[in-house]
UniProtKB/TrEMBL annotation:
Keywords: Cell membrane, Membrane, Transmembrane, Transmembrane helix. One of its GO terms (cellular component) is plasma membrane. Gene3D superfamilies: 3.30.70.120. The chain crosses the membrane at residues 12-37, 57-77, 84-105, 111-130, 151-172, 178-196. The keyword Membrane applies. It comes from Mailhella massiliensis. Residues 224-278 form the DUF2179 domain. PANTHER family: UPF0750 MEMBRANE PROTEIN YITT, UPF0750 MEMBRANE PROTEIN YITT-RELATED. This is YitT family protein. It is a multi-pass membrane protein.
C-alpha cells in the first residue's frame, strides 16, 4: 500500500487509542480480578505473578511482553506484512510502557462484572487494531497467519490455546480466577467475531436478469469472481440467471449495495459460509 499521511495518521491514532484502552483495562479490571487475558498479554501477567510469588522479583510488563512477542513479530514480518508488523510493534511497545506507567485503579470488586466488561474492552481494543490492519501482537499474529494460510476463522483455535495458559494459572494460583478468566476470554472472542469479520466469508446467491453486469460489479467491488447458473422461475416459468459468489464478510454489504445499483430488481440471498476450500482472493495486508 502506498504511503498516505491520512491513512497512516488514522492507523497511528487507532493504535494509540487501543493501547491506552488495553493498558487501562489491564490496570483496572484485569489486575483487580486477578485475571489472565490470554495470549502474550496473559502469559506476561502469569510470568510476572510467578516471578513475584516464588522469586520475589517484580518484572516489567513492557520488557516481558516484548520478549514474548519476538517470535510472533518474526512471523508477522515474514508472512503477513512489514508495515502491518511495524504498526503492531508500536502497539506492543505503547501498551507495555503505558501498563507500567498507569497506576492501578479499582472500579469494582465484582469478579463477574470484571470478567464481562474487561473482556468487552479487551475485544474492542484488539478489533480496533485489526480493523486498521494492525494488531495487539502475540497470538493475534498467529491467528491472522492461520487465517491467511488455511483460510479459516482461527479465533476459536486461539481460545483453545489459551486454555493451556489457564490450566497453568489454575494449578499455580487457584482455580477461581482461572475459571473467571474463561468468561473474560470468551467475551473477548465474541466481541472480535462481531467487530472484526475480515476472515469470515459470506456466500451470495443473486437471482438476476443481468448476470454479466452483476458479475462485473462483484469483481470491481471486491476482486472476487462469480459463477453464472441458468434456472427457471417457478411462477412465470421464465428463464432466470443465478449468480453465485463468495466474498469476505466485511465486503458483503458494499457488494450487495453495488449489485442493487446495477440491478434494482435482483433478488439477493446472503448466507454465512462455515468453511471454504480452494483459491480465495484475500485483500493484502499492509
Amino acid at each position: 500500500m502506498p504511503f498516505s499521511w491520512k491513512n497512516d495518521f488514522k492507523i497511528i491514532l487507532a493504535v494509540c487509542v487501543a493501547s491506552v484502552l488495553m493498558a487501562l483495562n489491564i490496570n483496572t479490571f484485569v489486575q483487580t480480578g486477578g485475571l489472565y487475558p490470554g495470549g502474550a498479554t496473559g502469559l506476561t501477567i502469569l510470568i510476572q505473578r510467578i516471578a513475584e510469588k516464588f522469586l520475589d522479583i517484580r518484572l516489567s510488563f513492557a520488557v516481558v511482553n516484548f520478549l514474548l512477542n519476538m517470535i510472533p513479530i518474526y512471523i508477522g514480518f515474514r508472512y503477513i506484512g512489514k508495515r502491518f508488523t511495524l504498526y503492531s510493534c508500536l502497539m506492543i511497545v505503547l501498551t507495555g510502557i503505558l501498563t507500567d506507567l498507569i497506576p492501578s485503579y479499582i472500579i469494582t470488586y465484582d469478579i463477574l462484572l470484571i470478567s464481562i466488561f474487561g473482556g468487552i474492552i479487551n475485544g474492542f481494543s484488539i478489533s480496533l487494531c485489526l480493523r486498521m490492519d494492525t494488531t495487539s501482537g502475540g497470538t493475534d499474529f498467529i491467528a491472522i497467519y492461520l487465517s491467511r494460510k488455511k483460510g479459516i476463522d482461527s479465533w476459536n483455535i486461539i481460545l483453545y490455546f489459551n486454555v493451556i495458559l489457564l490450566l497453568v494459572a489454575g494449578f499455580t494460583f487457584g482455580w477461581d480466577k482461572a475459571l473467571y478468566s474463561i468468561f473474560f476470554q470468551y467475551t473477548t472472542t465474541q466481541v472480535l467475531h462481531i467487530l472484526y469479520t475480515r476472515y469470515q466469508k459470506k456466500t451470495l446467491f443473486i437471482v438476476t436478469d443481468n448476470p454479466r453486469e452483476v458479475c462485473d460489479v462483484i469483481y470491481a467491488t471486491s476482486k472476487h469472481g462469480a459463477t453464472i447458473l441458468k434456472g427457471e422461475g417457478s411462477f412465470h416459468l421464465n428463464e432466470r440467471s443465478l449468480v453465485y459468489s463468495v466474498v469476505s464478510s466485511d465486503e458483503s454489504k458494499k457488494v450487495v449495495n453495488a449489485i442493487r445499483e446495477v440491478d434494482p430488481y435482483s433478488f439477493i440471498n446472503t448466507v454465512k459460509t462455515q468453511e471454504l476450500a480452494g483459491l480465495f482472493y484475500q485483500r493484502p495486508t499492509l
